[in-house]
Amino acid sequence: MLPGAYAHAPASVAFKKLRKRLLRQTQEAIRRFGMDAARSDGAPQKWLVCLSGGKDSYTLLAALLDLKWQGALKADLIACNLDQGQPGFPKHVLPDYLKGLGVDYRIVTEDTYSIVTDKLPETKTYCSLCSRLRRGILYRVAREEGCDAIVLGHHRDDALETFMMNLFHGGRMAAMPPRLINDEGDLYVLRPLILCAENDIAKFAAAMQFPIIPCNLCGSQEGLQREAMKQMLDEWERRRPGRREVMFRALQNVRLSHLADEKVWDFAGLERNEE
């Protein structure tokens, strides 16, 4: 299975180091955030690995298959792509790719494209509604397949951009958690690439020659808040290399007593030592 995934990979030392770094970070995220715990009956979990056809989800699947091949991941995997009915979507690309890998997969066709474009004018961003519709469908598919979790390809930079959007536009301090439980309480949502840098993922995807499918829905819109956050972080990184990594470390080093949310820290109940 694994050699097929790396059929087009270069043999260079640089690529081997890149692959090793991404695998190390993915395995570290799985370990640190308890993603690969067995079911209550001792059986391995079953994960629905969500593929969009973009660089992140291809890299996610490759990393998980690599870890499975090495015996470093116990969870069983089933790949899933949601065909959202976008005009010109190349329906053959992902099935052909997944067949070539010999991995279990499911292709689901739901015309969320028409719903999103009917409900929202072109001047509004589609991402939020599209994401909610897509997530609901993936939860349903995960239940049908007997999965314990849906697994997404969000990475470090996605988390930082979400944090900045919430800070500047949402009035709250929140990013993307590595692991959470859905509102119904029956499925985990996992992000094994959460420690990985987008730049590394882009280099890996290019070297692997993944058959990338561009998004012509939200990806075609201009003026997106997320894109503005990305540009801001790019500029900060250009001026001070390593700024993204420092910011992400801050998300892992929260001091509730030094913020101002009385719902999570009892400021009124603090008492000084009068002795």
Salient structural properties:
275 residues, alpha/beta, six-stranded mixed sheet, 10% strand, globular
Short précis:
The chain is 45% helix and 10% strand.
Could you characterize the architecture of this molecule?
- With 275 residues, this protein is of the alpha/beta class.
- It is 45% helix and 10% strand.
- The protein has a six-stranded mixed β-sheet, sandwiched between helices.
- Helix 2 crosses helix 3, helix 2 crosses helix 8 and helix 7 packs across helix 9.
- The longest helix has 20 residues.
- It is globular, with a radius of gyration of 20 Å.
- Indicate the low-confidence ranges by residue numbers: 219-223
Mean pLDDT, to the nearest integer, reads: 89
The N- and C-terminal alpha carbons lie at a distance of: 69 Å
* Rg, alpha carbons: 20 Å
Helix/sheet category? alpha/beta
